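Study this:
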Amino acid sequence: MALCDHSLRFGNDRQHGGFFYAGYPGRRADDTRKEWWVQAEALVSMLEMYRLTNSPRYYAAFRRTLDFIEVHQVAREGGWWSTRTAAGAPQGTQRSSMWQGAYHSGRAMIRCANLLDELARAR
């Protein structure tokens, strides 16, 4: 829980949604790029924390990250854009590779679908 709370405090973009790429421990992120795999892993982490704690702040972070991904990270041509600015603008034209996407993006979507089903059944 401490790692997720640290990420929410220092790495979560409350303005645009999603999570920044990197920063020093205990300080606000200084690398504010939005890397596709960070967003994918954040989805699973925040939804899993919501399942475990029922704290709405984790679900809100999940939802804002998903919104960012849907609007800015998903490439309509297939895959996810590798890097976006904090506000979601393009930063290069590279997309995640097939093997990267199959692991991070694919696993995140499958795990989130299962978690959402589990949460719906529990209500």
Observations:
- Strands lie at 34-35, 83-84.
- The mean pLDDT is 94.
